[in-house]
Amino acid sequence: MSKKNFIFGAGMRAKELKGFLALDSQEIYGFIVDSEYKNSDCFDGNVLLSTEEFLEKYKPEEVLLFMGVGMPRMNMKREKIFESFHKHGFVFEKYISSKANVFAAQIGEGCTIFPGVNIGLGVKVGTGNHFEMGVTVSHDCIIGDYNFFAPGCTLCGDIQINKGCFIGANSTVSNSIVLSDYTLVGAGAFVSKSTKPYDVVLPQKSFTPDNKTSLDFMK
Ligand SMILES: CC(C)(COP(=O)(O)OP(=O)(O)OC[C@H]1O[C@@H](n2cnc3c(N)ncnc32)[C@H](O)[C@@H]1OP(=O)(O)O)[C@@H](O)C(=O)NCCC(=O)NCCS
Q: What is the distance between the alpha carbons of residues 190 and 218, in angstroms, rounded to a whole number?
C-alpha cells in the first residue's frame, strides 16, 4: 500500500510546500493542524485533520509527514510539534527541492529546503530547519536545530548557528562567528560578531530623508 503524504500546518507556508512538492511529483493527501486551529474539514482542496484525528486514524508506517509551519514563537512551535509527533513514533520527512543546490555533508530530519537554496560543501544541518527561497549557506557552517532562514539571507563560511534562530530576509552573517540560541537577525542586517542567546541584530539605517546623495565619489 502506498503511503499518504501529509503536511503539518494549514497556512501560507504549508500551501507553498504543497506546491513545491507537486512540482517534484509528490502529491499531498492532507493537512494536519492542532484542534484549536481547525475550522474546516478541508484546506486548499485537501482533507484537513486535527492532530487527534490524524493520530487516531494513521500509523507511522502509513504516511509521509512534512513540516509546513514556519517561525511562530521563534521556532518553538515547530520544535514542540516535532517532539509531540516523535512521542507517537512519527518522524518528519526532509524536503529538498530538485531546484536547490545542496552539497552538504548532512541534512537532518524534517528540514525543508525550498527552490533556489545553495548549501555548500562540508555544511552540517540539524533537525527541523527551514530554508526559504534563495538562501545561501557557504562552506563548513554548522547549523543546529529548528532555525528559520528567510528569503535571500547569506551565511558566509564556517559559521555556527545554534538553535531556534531567525535569520531575516537578505541579511548577511559574516564568517567564523557563532549565533547563540534564539538570535533574531532583522531583514537586511549584517552580523559581524557572535551573539548571545535572544540577541536581536538590526541593520544600520542606510538612508534617512535628511541625507543628500553625495556625488564626490564620482569625481
Ligand atoms: C526586526 C523585526 C523582527 C522587527 O519587527 P517589529 O518589532 O515588529 O518592528 P516594526 O516593524 O514595528 O519596526 C519598528 C521600526 O524599526 C524599523 N525596522 C524594523 N526592522 C527593520 C529592518 N529589518 N530594517 C530597517 N528598519 C527596520 C521599522 O521601519 C520601524 O521604523 P519606524 O518606527 O521609523 O517606522 C522585523 O522588522 C524584521 O526584520 N523582520 C524580518 C522580515 C523577514 O525577513 N521576513 C521574512 C519572512 S519569510
A: 26
